[in-house]
């Protein structure tokens, strides 16, 4: 889907543990941070900075596609940072094109 519905210069974002999607879709990440580690991988301060940078890059870069792994968003991201601005961006600029028990996929509105 990503390859067929984005251009080769489109950026994408994956909130979760599926870095292989960047490779398989032949699309670049919107952020230099491409992998969100589990809660205890870094100190709370460092994890907070990483997540703020990553979500900030999504807000600033407005990727063509955002893939959210619900567990990662709820148990890691929301634990460390306020994502109100990110949620507002999705509501205003994106449409949910797919949802399963484990993930949601959003596409930038045209």
Could you explain how this protein is built, in words?
The protein is an alpha/beta fold and 110 residues long. The chain contains 5 helices and 5 strands. The chain has helices spanning 2-5, 20-25, 44-61, 70-80, 84-93, and strands at residues 11-15, 28-29, 65-69, 94-99, 103-108. A 5-stranded mixed beta sheet has the order 2-1-3-5-4. A hairpin with a 3-residue loop joins strand 4 (94-99) and strand 5 (103-108). The model has no long low-confidence stretch (mean pLDDT 91).
Ordered list of secondary-structure elements with their pairings:
Blueprint: H1 2-5, E1 11-15, H2 20-25, E2 28-29, H3 44-61, E3 65-69, H4 70-80, H5 84-93, E4 94-99, E5 103-108
Parallel strand pairs: 1-2, 1-3
Antiparallel strand pairs: 3-5, 4-5
TL;DR of this structure?
This protein is α/β, with parallel strands linked by helices.
